[in-house]
Amino acid sequence: MIRPATIDDIPDILRLVRELADYERALHEVKATEEQLRANLFGDEPKVFAHVVEHAGRVVGFALWFLTFSTWNGTHGIYLEDLFVEPDVRGQGYGRLLLTELARTADERGYERVEWSVLNWNTPAIEFYEAMGARPQDEWTVHRLTGDALTKAARS
Question: Which segments does the entry list as coiled coil (predicted)?
């Protein structure tokens, strides 16, 4: 049911990315293409990784992640960029299996954390993550340079 993504999964992963963005009320912000996903997940030196969930022979969920590094711990960690399971198959444990697989990967490799961001209004996701033992890091605030601010900072 849970397996590492293959290059043949790219169309399904992009479809699920779009479904997630639609759920998060941001479908208009998706710019990713199949070519970009193919290059980043399966290029010469991949820096992004994915697992998928199959149900009845069809990809219905995915987790896309990359490595982080903690200077304090001196070890890598996993940053979960996206985790999504189609609404019609939720409640069957697929999200838990995906998160468990990432935890297993981190544990086997000696990484000390798996972390991610969740929208404050996404109560079902927050409850799911907390039921898995995750705790919010309330003392940290995410900052981001993007768009014009990124361009300005790069050129200053």
Answer: 13-40
CA distance 11 to 33: 9
* pLDDT mean values, one per 10 residues, the chain (156 residues): 97 98 96 98 97 97 98 96 97 96 97 95 94 92 92 94
Q: Considering the entire predicted model, what is its pTM?
A: 0.93
Tokens 């993504």 sit at which residue? 5
Give the range of the structural domain holding residue 110, as residue numbers without chain letter.
Answer: 2-154
- List the catalytic residues: 129
Tell me the C-alpha distance between 44 and 113, whole Å.
26
Structural domain total, the chain: 1
